Amino acid sequence: MNPAEMEKLHSVCSLLAGQKLPRWNDLPDLDLYMDQLLSLVARYLKGYPGLDEKGLTASMVNNYVKLGLIPSPEKKKYKRHHLANLMMILLLKPVLPIGTVRQMIDDQLAAGSSYEDLYGHFCDLFEATNSAAAENAANLAGKTLTESVLAAALRAQAEQAIAVSLYENV
After folding, report:
1. pLDDT of residue 53
2. What's the pLDDT at 58?
3. Among the listed residues 95, 43, 45, 88, the one whose alpha carbon sits nearest the alpha carbon of residue 70
């Protein structure tokens, strides 16, 4: 890799290793209108690589409600659990079918987990996985750009295959 590519790799690794999600108690404990909800999700996930550039839209939120991915708002107001659900969905949907995301959330809630527990566990896994990915990516420094991209893409594909296979037909 040339110096500019190395700098970009270092930047992405630093971003991943330092990426933190707000914990349950850091999420607002007050009702939010749609525009406030969208703004907070955008702020919390700002700059995270791989997420759709246009971010979360009101029509996406409405579709998630219709699909049963998130509960209906109460009097057009969203609560802490809506915000947590949306962040989990946005981070998982690029790699898992939306039905699988819904099933995983439903299964955890049916097993007795609260939204707070589910989201807390998700945050822990998110941060640990990002740190591990940053460590793996740092090992790409001695390779060419093409080799590095291929290695990262193939590792992502393999991890996605594992995730989808594990939850298939459960």
Report:
1. 63
2. 94
3. 88
Count of residues making up the chain: 170
DSSP assignment string, 63-87: HHHHTTSSPPPBTTBB-HHHHHHHH
User: What DSSP assignment string belongs to 26-61?
Assistant: GS--S-B-HHHHHHHHHHHHTT-TTS-TT---HHHH
Contact 21, 123 (CB under 8 A): yes
**Helix (H), strand (E) at residue 16:** helix 3-18
Is the per-residue pLDDT at 170 higher than 70? no
pTM, two decimals, is 0.84
Start-to-end CA span in the chain (Å): 43
Using an 8 Å Cβ cutoff, are 148 and 140 in contact? yes
Under a CB-based contact definition with an 8 Å cutoff, are residues 73 and 65 in contact?
yes
